[in-house]
Fold this protein.
Amino acid sequence: MRLNRLLSVFILMLGFCCHIAQSNAQTVDDATLRPLVQALAGDNFENTTKAISDLVKTGDPRVSKILDALSAGDLYVAKADKTVFLGKRDGSDYAATDALTGAKLDPVPRSAAEKIKVNNRLRRDIAAAIGGLTLMSDNIAERRSAAEAILKTRDPESIPLLDQAIAVEKDAGVKALMQQAKAAAVLNSDAADDVKIAAITEVSAGNSRAALGLLTPLENVQGPVGEAAKAAIDSINTKLAFWNAIQNVVYGLSLGSVLLLAAIGLAITFGVMGVINMAHGEMVMIGAYTTFVVQQIIRTSAPGLFDYSLLIALPAAFLVSGGIGVVIERGIIRFLYGRPLETLLATWGISLVLQQAIRSWFGASNVQVGNPSWMAGSFDLGLLTLTWSRLWIIVFALSVFAILQLVLKKTMLGLRMRAVTQNRRMASSMGIRTPWVDALTFGLGSGIAGIAGVALSQIDNVSPNLGQGYIIDSFMVVVFGGVGNLWGTLVGAMSLGIANKFLEPFAGAVLGKIVVLVLIILFIQKRPRGLFALKGRAIEA
Amino acid sequence: MFNLPAKFIGTLAAAAMGASLAMSPASAADDTIKVGILHSLSGTMAISETTLKDTMLFLIDEQNKKGGVLGKKLEAVVVDPASDWPLFAEKARQLIEQDKVAAVFGCWTSSSRKSVLPVFEELNSMLFYPVQYEGEESSRNVFYTGAAPNQQAIPAVDYLAKEEGVERWVLAGTDYVYPQTTNKILKAYLNAKGVKDEDIMINYTPFGQSDWQTIVSDIKKFGSTGKKTAVVSTINGDANVPFYKELANQGIKAEDIPVVAFSVGEEELAGLDTKPLVGHLAAWNYFQSVDADANAEFIKEWHAYTKNDKRVTNDPMEATYIGFNMWVKAVEAAGTTDSNAVIDSIVGTSVPNLSGGYATMMPNHHITKPVLIGEVQDDGQFDIVYQTPGLVVGDEWSDYLPGSKDLISDWRKPMSCGNFNIVSGKCGGVTN
Amino acid sequence: MITQWFFTHVDRRGGIAIALLVAIALLVPLSNLLLPQTSPLHIPTYLVSLIGKYLTYALLAVALDLVWGFCGILSLGHGAFFALGGYAMGMYLMRQIGPRGVYADPVLPDFMVFLNWKELPWFWHGFDNFWFAALMVVLVPGALAFGFGWLAFRSRVTGVYLSIITQALTYALLLAFFRNDMGFGGNNGLTDFKDILGFNIQAGTTRSMLFAATALFLALAVFVSSFIIRSKLGKVLVGVRDAESRMRFLGYRVDRYKLFVWTISAMMAGIAGALYVPQVGIINPSEFEPANSIEAVIWVAVGGRGTIIGPIIGAVLVNFGKTYFTAAFPEIWLFALGALFIIVTLFLPKGILGLYGSWRTKLADRAARKKDSAPPPVAAENVHLPEPQAAE
């Protein structure tokens, strides 16, 4: 372990030496380099590590490219003559190029070559080594990753090189990062107390969590350094506590949005129409599978459109789930109006059939739904890490809610829906075709469940069981919010989400969920018709 | 139709009994040997178990092509216990008592195995159980061809400590018995290695957990103290996809905080885009990427059988393969399918595994296995970065749990005991 | 005397059902134990346990029908009471294992030993005594139901709200029992039982006795249900089902009536669970799955809600179907089961017994029509009790 660390420090150091050497444009001839490259194909990681350090020692500019390839797993060794080459998969062959010269070689059959193994530690070492080679690179991204690599290793030996680099660095961001790296290295060295205290100030100005990691070992040091570290830690902790609360709210909203998405379709089929729709979860699942099918088609016929796959899947999922909803309503549910509890049985049967249908069709395993690039990754907001997918889901859930409100309040269809649900007979005598309104309302609810499935496919696994995971939560949200009230569903989802996230750190995920359920039960005793109860005779069951 | 309710009920009951008696497929001729397949084809576990049912059908098909066993063809009896644990017990009883199967291959979760165990012991039949589990069990009638904790968890932790220099550990699992036991064992093991309690974080989540934001961000915090941190994940199947998605999205790279999983294989990764996960680890006894002729052959035939060259293979499939071949070999050695004879003849049986070596059935009814550690690749496969130099014998009673460290199991005569206490020198409980 | 008393409280159907159940309780064990295996009338042990399991489900269904069919309380959480009764019995059976567990610990069950528990948690004490456990079988579900009902009925939580919070109840219990820290064996539950009241639990005689006990308890449940339904109390309950507000305005303390029948029903479900566990050999948290409770509702609906023997028929039939289909069509049986539920709700709104009822009415109609060609009497539907109607 210690050996590894020493080794990476060594590599790093060499990197800098070489870098300096490199400015003299020193290259090594192929004959010296080739056996070193050949040595990368050692039979264990230790040999490979040694080969890497030998390579870096040469200071040849080609080394960083070769190591990059190794790190990416593109270096192969032919089984027969043990030559190392750069390979790219091409059918059943590897398209091979010479690792040193880049000259094209004959393709190698896949069975005749073996990938040179790299593990996480090697990749880390390589990054550090390349980092040393590229601290003065022309490319800003390379300089940034070089500084990051040093920030991780915190090697005191790199201080002079960092000083050099800081002196010429133009970009403010990279410069700050280099200064952070230097401060971290200083804290790790046996510099004088005042230098260290300055470094503590520097460090605590940066990323607080990383700083905490750097400072904690110093906390128990006697003297001014320890005191400074302690003070810095205290202030960071206060900051972190504040951000923790914010994190709980934001994560709670994000969980709430997922609940809202899952429940909002149910708020229509169950809340507005009174159908205890146990097949709601399956509508969500069908939406997710529609996304899968859309992505599948895009992958095979128009890979360029992949980033738009979700946008294409949205209307598709709405139509598929909505269409199935209309069929179910016309075929089964319409015979059951006025017998709401029996809709429970029929829809339970439907849910079994739909699950099995999907299982027979797509298989029982998960299917892969990819994230488009704009859904992948995360960004930092203060000390909070929020992933793009979660952010988009919050935005998406709220938009769906807003659009649904618009449809219900501002369109003719919405007006009719409300009329029918409030007083079927009256609406019918006013000339509204209630059967069609019923079918469309159920279709709308199912369609919205379908587009919820598109969103959920981004964060959850897409399998025939997908719907089962959400059905209970959805019912809780609708009932908690108040049946028949969309605003109740919104507030209900968000408050359950936030309550869950505030309880989770104290009680753990399992107990937190139990507490939330008990709270719902108790809450219903207080308000037997949910958060936003409808008033009037219509609600008397 | 019916005149009286009494008659109505009577007819119904009679019909029920009659039909269930006639339930077994047209009474088997004596020239076949029946093999029971007890894997959930619906419900929550269908996602994992369906593949094993297909594997069994494939293996039986292959065996029949080779002429069957003892000159008789094998006949598969498939039932669906529907991820419902008591139904497992009912179906096991049905397979043994009604269909008179010679052996049963099945179960995935420990609950399902616990549920059928008394049935197999009572009716003295054989169950081959192909999934890694928490250990702490050894039955005369059950053959554990999956990994015990020492064949998976402990070598993985050793690898991380040695090769990656990990000093700080997150033990994250789903809140059920397998993760709890494995984590207890691991914690005792790490403590014995000098890891302090403050460097171990244990976290449990409910089944099917889908919101991992808080936990992943906690892991990130725990890992940012400067000491090298790794996550040992015993998170159960369904919850893994959202966990890894959150991990990828929050930008936790394998170089920073590697995650080593014991329940994530090729099948689970099939539902994921693995590009952001490259370098995260899994510990198994088999990977599809194993470079061995037996494996290449197996994959080729599997693809031909399923008519789908994208179907992946995984560790429980290999365990099924080993268990099935061991049974065939033991039956041929015994010359009969009678349970007592086969149970006696199977101990010591060696069959090729798929990683180019041999698996042997040990007297404790667990098998020898190599332990492989693989890193996730961008194509959903694993790149094997470590393999134990020799084979590891499954340890049914963990040495790291106070209750079981004195127990051993040996089903050979004359000991024939699943829980022999080496301190008291007595066979602990009365089993059969 | 006694027969007369009996028949004032039980209708003809109920009487036949009770007689039949008592007969089954006697005949099935006799056939299993006394007849040679070759006899065509011999019932194998396998079937004894299987039918025994169906009958415990039937008992649960009768309990559920008492609240749903006769009082209009749709519980989506009755599985919780069933499971609690089962756990109480399971804890007794666990304690009976004694030093025969794999770790040979005289007191602690196996799962506690390997998870390093040092002593028996307080709530496990007393369960080594059968009668204490038997008391808990009714007391724990009863107390939970009483507490839950007392809160819910007093605050007039009704309809779907009540259904959903009963679901929340069983879901919360599911999660709680899953936790290993709770001390109930986590998801593996309680299993590997050895004996009950000193008899080997796997022996044929024990199985037959358990079967007989189940059939007799079911007969008792039918009697108790009939007794309640035919009493004045029962009339009030039906009144509550059909017009709760009206009953309240008439001066009945609706909440007390509901609470009474709700608690009785939970206790019956607890007994069902207690009989279920020794026959299937395991109890684990999956019994708390909300889906299980919904399935119980379906048995009642299939058999005929608001009848006493309908639920028995429904439970036996659906579970028999499950047994049959999962073996005969393991890949596609969910289609069959799903279709069954849809068809029953669409075409047999009153369940199988309802079908029988309307068929008899039709027959009577035809006979009447034959006698004189008077206009046909009122439609069959009007003969039945009106369904409780939710808001439209």
Notes: Residues 46-65 of chain B form the longest helix (20 residues). Residues 60 and 304 of chain B are 15 Å apart (CA to CA). Chain B touches chain A through 62 residues (CB under 8 Å). The two ends of chain B are 50 Å apart (CA to CA).
